[in-house]
Amino acid sequence: QVQLVESGGGLVQAGDSLRLSCEASGDILSINNMAWYRQAPGQQREWVASRTSGGASNYVDSVKGRFTISRDNAKNTVYLQMNSLKPEDTAVYYCKAVGTSDYWGQGTQVTVSS
């Protein structure tokens, strides 16, 4: 089992930055990839970014150039640095760990006001 705890969400204005954190515990050696997803009200959960254990990163087109996913293996933590935030980035952001199973965190709310 893997437990994930997200933090770092909040209310910001358009153009501001936030850094989300996701700390993993438990069977962390089983984790391969880690990813961030988001879900806006009334919409389906959307993949935002992912990072493999080998260090490769991928992003949805809408956040390319603004968001950066990083991973600190020593701290068992994955980050999502979000710059130049837009109102359409408003959502609950979830961390996902992919290993022998898929594991999800509880989510952290990000609200961007115009």
Cα(first) to Cα(last) distance is: 40 Å
DSSP strand (E) fraction?
A: over 45%
Strand segment tally? 11
Helix-and-strand structural type = mainly beta
What would the average pLDDT be, to the nearest integer?
95
Number of discrete helical segments: 0
**Helix proportion:** under 10%
Detail the poorly predicted runs: none
Biggest sheet layout: 7 strands, mixed
Q: Would you kindly provide a written description of the structure presented here, covering whatever features stand out?
A:
It is built from no helices and 11 strands. The chain has 114 residues and is mainly β. The strands form 2 sheets. Strands 2, 4, 5, 6, 9, 10 and 11 form a 7-stranded mixed sheet that branches. It is globular.
Summarize the helices and strands and which ones pair or pack:
Elements: E1 2-7, E2 10-13, E3 18-26, E4 33-39, E5 46-51, E6 57-59, E7 67-72, E8 77-82, E9 91-98, E10 102-104, E11 108-113
Parallel strand pairs: 2-11
Antiparallel strand pairs: 1-3, 3-8, 4-5, 4-9, 5-6, 7-8, 9-10, 9-11
